[in-house]
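Quick illustration, no need to memorize.
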Amino acid sequence: MRSIERLFVGAGILALTLLSASGLPNTIAIRLENPQSTHPLFKVVGWDQIGKISTQATHFGTDQWHTLFAVYVDSGSLDDALPPILGSYRIEGDALVFQARFPLQPGLRYRAVFTSASEPITFRFDIPESEAIVSTTVEHVYPSTNRLPENQLKFYLHFSAPMSRGEAYSRIHLLDKGGDPIDFPFLELNEELWDREGKRLTLLFDPGRIKRGLVPYEEVGPSIKEGETYALVIDRDWRDARGKPLKQDFKKFFSVIAADRKTPDPESWLLTPPQAGSLQPFSVEFPEPLDHGLLMRLLEVMDIQGNFVEGSVQVDRNETRWGFTPQQPWKAGDYSLSVDTTLEDLAGNRINRPFEVDVFERVEERITTTTVSLPFQVLPRQ
């Protein structure tokens, strides 16, 4: 079986004529659509087996899709061991469609390989360097506070534009007060934890250096230590999704306080109801900072009938205050704040479940979600 290869610069179509089983010409085209978009598309069209595959596609696993059609970052090596880029597959009319999960990186070459029953087709193409100006910045790093517990679990890094993948752990550094790097403070995952837009990275401290009783904690100690000061540094050389470096370096300085091993207690929260007929925010104040990412999605307001109230969420005061502004003016009556018990503090302690409690527990096959309800009342205007 011989391989057919073509090189194309930029977006476009690779068309190739083969003979089908009937001996008639069968034109197969590989199309790259919207190469500058957040989720570019690769399409195989003109394949005479598409109808047969469409009936089997619902049972395909990732490995089966990759065997049929896969896209790689091309290093130029014949023994390239890089895995296929991430994405999803679907049948769309007479086309086999692969939708990339992340933007294509300017300045890189990609290799698309389609393997039918006859001959594999390799399509190599270059994404041109972007001429865009350098503008991407680190907008915010959460937690906002500059006092973190010794068992701090994570950072959220927010960027002003989508970022490139695969180099986060070489561009993020943790320095001690003397400017020396801390060795391996973070959990380095093969697949970095980005949101769908590629603008927020979740950076986890190594749990092995947080949980007491684990070998890394006992032998090496925690990544950050009570009484010390540190700097989280993000390199300017980190490139965004357009291939451009950050506008400037970013540094977050913080000091470390004692480890927090207590669970958040909703009974200690201060609820401030709004006035009926207004669009005033309903606010909740916490005695300690809570996880910003979870605060944005795990608290909801419900009316007396159990319906969710539509509105927007604001988190401020170093993540010690949560606010909710309704879309429509408040009506007088009884309400409740529904709180998912997976809400965490900065150390990963959940409501009624400390972070360390599952060190030696078996992972449950089923994950159940529970909530606590905090009632409040919106009074009529006097």
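The CA atoms of residues 50 and 56 lie 10 Å apart.
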